[in-house]
Amino acid sequence: MERRFLLAITLMIAVLVAPSFFAKRRPPVRPGADSTSVAAAPDTGDRRPDTGAPTAPPVSSVLPVPTVLPVSPVQADTISLVMPRAAYRFSSIGGALDQAVFPDARSFRRGDDKRPANLIRPGDRMLVHRIVVGSDTLKMDDVAFTQAREGAAITMTGARGAVTQTMRITPAPGGTFLIDVSGELAGLEGRGALLLIGMGNGFANVEADSMDNYRNYAVAVRRSSVENVNFRSVDPGVVQTLPGPFDWVGVKSKYFLGALLSADSSKPQFGGTVLVGGTREGRVATTMQTWVTTAVGPDGRFHYRLYLGPQQQRLLHSLGRDLDRASSYGWIFKPIVMPVAGLLTRFFLFMHEQLRLSYGLALVLFGVLVRLVLWPLNQRAMKSQVAMMAVQPLMKDIQTRYKNDPQKLQTEMMKLYKEHNVNPLGGCLPLLLPMPVLLALFFVFSRAIELRGTAFLWLPDLSLRDPLFITPLVMGASMYALSKMSQAGMPPNPQAKMMTNVMPVMMTVMFLNFASGLNLYYAVSNLVSLPQQYLINKARQAEMSRRQVSVGTTGKKT
Question: In the chain, what are the domain boundaries?
Answer without folding.
Answer: 78-328, 341-547
